[in-house]
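pasting for the record
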Amino acid sequence: MNATVAAEDLAILILLSLVPALVYLAWVRKSERYGGEPWGALLGGFAYGALFATVVAGVLELVIVELGTSVSQRYPAPEFVFLNGNSTLGAFFLVLVIAPFVEEALKGSGVAALRSRITKVADGPVFGASVGLGFGFFETFLYGAGAYAVGGLAAGIALIALRSVSSVVLHGSSTGMFGYGYGRSKFRVPGAGTGSYYLLAVGMHASFNALASLSAILVVLGVTGFAGTTASLVAFLAAAAFAFAAIEHVRTVINAADYPSIGPYVPRAPAAYRPPSKR
């Protein structure tokens, strides 16, 4: 394969990863009926998630896995097996624990970086979704590029298609909920705030990863053949359904928080959006 063909193929993979994420972002943006966010600001959050959060999260996860592997090799006790990144248990620990905590923290930092743009509670989940979808886009492209390196263009496209209707949506949803908590904290809404919604985002991420990893878990348990394939397909459909239900919930939260006359989502609506008093 020459360099020109490879460059064209990678451009196709980038485009196929990017378009669905931007479509989801436009969908979420429409949920805010009053004072919708400008595209420039949203794309800034999208770029933060894609170019900063994804890269830094990947580096941190690699460092954590390397440190954990060193500890497990230095102290080869059974209770430290889950730290070994070269073991099956270590791989599941990375996917179900390390990745959700690290990635949601990095994506959440993007929401904090956009704090000056958050002028009402409903802005938080919109910007959270923008950061999360940017993260999901670039992570999906990287996975697609890896599949392309092994199996060619068709393999890359297939993996991107699967992730575009599952993982990308989940990243936007979990960080959208974190953004909602951040908005609640910023405007001092009574009840759960940033910390609680960060843990919610981590829980959403870990739950999705558990469903998405079921096929690998079944192989470890010795469930293969038709039963394993069927269960894996059901698990993927459940993961995709979970992701879309989550982003629909984010849209509902944005819609409710953005409506000036409804509490308890908004303690006080911006003056520009107050409805006229009833006579």
